[in-house]
């Protein structure tokens, strides 16, 4: 229950429907928690709701998940996941030599006044963007309220579902950023069309993620537990209607949405300290550490809800994949995609 006390947050934004705060699609029997909140349980999960300005969560197999649009995103939002997101934030930046984006922002008369970070997570990117552009207003939205309260004044966070209708003005944002969102949406083309509609003429969109295709510096990926993990989880995500294999399709999708001058930058994202180059070796260390934590985060709710696995099966799959990752002899990596495009003026 310690998470309950850590999860105090400002009152919800107007985009957080009150009905969603108090209810969950699951059938729960309410139990009085003794401190003004209600705790509802099923066999392996429980949710906490309260009217005290504290955000509700659902707990399942030892992990915490968002209640807003419960089930739309099957990855936890607890402390362990927040650490993983911050670590991945460092990797995305390190692969760009410390830069937050590849788009030619501020060049050729382009002004950065309104920025949107879709699915902002911990808000780390949005906060750093607000620091880099102190005159711009940066909005980060997410299903989960896991952003810190100490963001710069020009950075705001909203609870929102970007698969629902948008309330932002059209032709408004000078830059829309989407990072690490593969597996989040049922209809990427619809989300990208909305991005187009809400980008100001001459403004930019940027997508950043790694693809879901495991590769090896030795040429062939060993046919071991890691490959099995990758296949089971990717197949389950696809069956769930929110596939992981998105990054390599984004260039075409962004063009189809209407953006022009589309640029793609690919970087190797090593999953262990096997590269010779010292900088890549360090990124590989981070990559391995992040993946260890991602194994359980990506699979627990997904495999139990979609394939009916129990937690012991999930743990076994993750442990075996972790063992192979720690062994490191496979020289594994994935490819990072940084894709940006411009809305014609
Ligand atoms: C893997 S995290 C990436 C967070 C952040 N973009 C980053 O790069 O650190 C994916 C985030 O997308 C959010 N998300 C998933 N579906 C969403 C939706 N329909 N609307 C808004 N946010 C969503 C999740 O809550 C989660 O915080």
From TrEMBL:
Residues 1-29 are annotated as: Disordered. Residues 1-17 have a biased composition (Polar residues). The keyword Methyltransferase applies. Signal peptide: none annotated. Keywords: Methyltransferase, Transferase. GO terms for molecular function: methyltransferase activity. Pfam families: Methyltransf_23. The keyword Heme does not apply. InterPro entries: SAM-dependent_MTases_sf (IPR029063). One of its GO terms (biological process) is methylation. This is S-adenosyl-L-methionine-dependent methyltransferase. It comes from Tuber borchii (White truffle).
């Amino acid at each position: 229950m310690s998470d309950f006390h850590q999860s105090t947050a400002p009152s919800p934004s107007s985009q957080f429907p009150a009905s969603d705060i108090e209810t969950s699609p699951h059938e729960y029997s309410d139990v009085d928690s003794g401190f003004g909140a209600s705790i509802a349980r099923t066999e392996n999960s429980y949710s906490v709701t309260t009217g005290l300005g504290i955000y509700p969560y659902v707990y399942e197999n030892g992990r915490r998940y968002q209640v807003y649009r419960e089930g739309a995103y099957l990855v936890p939002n607890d402390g362990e996941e927040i650490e993983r997101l911050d670590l991945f934030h460092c990797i995305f930046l390190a692969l760009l030599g410390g830069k937050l984006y590849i788009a030619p922002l501020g060049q050729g008369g382009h002004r950065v006044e309104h920025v949107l970070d879709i699915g902002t997570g911990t808000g780390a990117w949005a906060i750093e963007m607000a620091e880099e552009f102190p005159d711009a207003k940066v909005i980060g939205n997410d299903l989960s309220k896991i952003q810190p309260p100490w963001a710069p004044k020009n950075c705001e966070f909203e609870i929102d579902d970007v698969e629902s209708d948008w309330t932002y003005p059209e032709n408004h944002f000078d830059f829309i950023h989407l990072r690490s969102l593969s597996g989040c949406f049922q209809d990427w083309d619809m989300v990208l069309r909305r991005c187009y509609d809400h980008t100001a003429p001459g403004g930019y969109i940027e997508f950043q993620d790694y693809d879901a295709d495991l590769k090896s510096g030795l040429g062939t990926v060993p046919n071991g537990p890691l490959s099995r993990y990758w296949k089971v989880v990717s197949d389950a995500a696809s069956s769930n209607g929110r596939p992981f294999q998105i990054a390599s399709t984004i260039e075409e999708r962004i063009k189809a949405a209407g953006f022009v001058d589309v640029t793609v930058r690919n970087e190797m994202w090593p999953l262990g300290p096997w590269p010779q180059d010292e900088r890549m070796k360090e990124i590989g260390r981070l990559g391995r550490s992040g993946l260890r934590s991602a194994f359980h985060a990506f699979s627990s709710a997904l495999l139990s809800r979609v394939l009916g696995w129990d937690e012991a099966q999930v743990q076994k799959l993750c442990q075996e994949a972790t063992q192979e990752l720690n062994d490191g002899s496979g020289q594994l990596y994935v490819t990072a995609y940084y894709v940006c495009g411009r809305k014609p003026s």
